[in-house]
């Protein structure tokens, strides 16, 4: 079994994470990888304050990651913007492990976490609902304008 760990990501991980996100979006949508998606991922990865956690085998690029915007001030609500795992690891429990570890890291920093998901992304919705998230209304992705469901989780 390959030893994998979840560790804080660094700016050195941005390219690999943007590649993972671009591949995940293309696979989800049944399209070719889009350079515009990669560019948006890079912008989001540079946003601060943020929490970037990576799933990796020591000495290798990330096999998965989560990216969360942290509350800067005001309401203590964080927003999970990305969760991605390489296709080879999907369905193996690593996505759930990444989610659980992300929520543990957010405890004390935020009271609530939100995320957006496409209506048709039933696999992601199943993961979110299995890990304690609840639908909280309709939304639109700011980056694309696509309709989405808003999910919320209290920490």
Q: Mean pLDDT, nearest integer?
A: 92
**What is the number of helices?**
4
What is the CATH architecture descriptor?
Answer: 3-Layer(aba) Sandwich
Shape: globular
Largest sheet: 7 strands, mixed
Could you say which structural class the secondary elements and strand pairing correspond to? Answer: alpha+beta
Q: Compute the CA-based radius of gyration.
A: 15 Å
Order of strands in the sheet with most strands: 1-2-3-4-5-7-6
Number of strands: 7
Strand residues, percent? 25-35%
User: What is the CATH first-level class name?
Assistant: Alpha Beta
Provide the succession of SSEs. Answer: EHHEEEHEHEE
The total number of structural domains is: 1
Distance between the termini: 32 Å
As for the CATH topology, it is: Aminopeptidase
Parts with pLDDT < 50 across at least 5 consecutive residues: none
Q: What is the CATH superfamily classification?
A: Gcn5-related N-acetyltransferase (GNAT)
Helix fraction? Answer: 25-40%
GO cellular component, one term: ribosome
Pfam families: Acetyltransf_1
Keywords: Acyltransferase, Ribonucleoprotein, Ribosomal protein, Transferase
Domain N-acetyltransferase: 4-155
Quick structural gist:
This protein has 155 residues and is of the alpha+beta class. 32% of the residues lie in helices and 30% in strands.
Structural summary, described in words:
This protein has 155 residues and is of the alpha+beta class. It has one domain (5-154): Gcn5-related N-acetyltransferase (GNAT) (Aminopeptidase), CATH 3.40.630. It is 32% helix and 30% strand. It has helices at residues 14-29, 35-46, 94-106, 122-130; strands spanning 5-8, 50-56, 64-69, 77-85, 112-117, 134-140, 147-154. Helix 1 packs across helix 2. The termini are far apart. The mean pLDDT is 92.
């Amino acid at each position: 079994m390959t030893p994998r760990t979840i560790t804080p990501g660094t700016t050195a991980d941005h390219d690999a994470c943007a590649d993972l996100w671009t591949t995940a979006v293309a696979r989800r949508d049944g399209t070719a990888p889009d350079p515009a998606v990669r560019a948006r991922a890079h912008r989001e990865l540079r946003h601060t304050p943020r929490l970037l956690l990576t799933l990796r085998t020591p000495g290798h690029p990330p096999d998965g990651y989560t990216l969360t915007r942290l509350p800067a001030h005001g309401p203590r609500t964080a927003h999970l913007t990305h969760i991605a795992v390489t296709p080879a690891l999907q369905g193996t429990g690593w996505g759930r492990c990444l989610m659980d570890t992300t929520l543990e890291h957010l405890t004390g920093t935020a009271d609530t976490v939100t995320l957006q998901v496409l209506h048709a992304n039933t696999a992601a919705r199943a993961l979110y609902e299995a890990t304690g998230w609840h639908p909280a209304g309709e939304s639109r992705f700011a980056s694309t304008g696509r309709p989405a469901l808003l999910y919320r989780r209290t920490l």
